[in-house]
Design brief:
Aminopeptidase, alpha+beta
Length: 113
Amino acid sequence: MCIRDSPNTLHLLGYQEEQIVAYLRILPKGQSYPEHISIGRVVTAFHARGAGLGHELMSEGISQCQHYFPNESIKISAQQHLKAYYQQYGFTQVSEMYLEDDIPHIAMIRQCS
């Protein structure tokens, strides 16, 4: 197992009834991408989906990026079928499709605001 965390990695955890049901991590510039901070490992537990937790998670993740890494653009490696989802948060596709773990992905960037 490879852990790409650094002391500056931020972990956001969403709980319901003392169980983790949502998670994402924010990686500083240079950890995943040389010129961008990154949001990754965005996940919501299957049984908790459909209640808006993913939207809360992304909104809070972007807010934390702006707080801890002001004036930095955010780059993500998004599953291709979630392109419209991430576009809601200001992300723009910046690559052609590529395979990551045999799943179609695209690179997307949200410019700093």
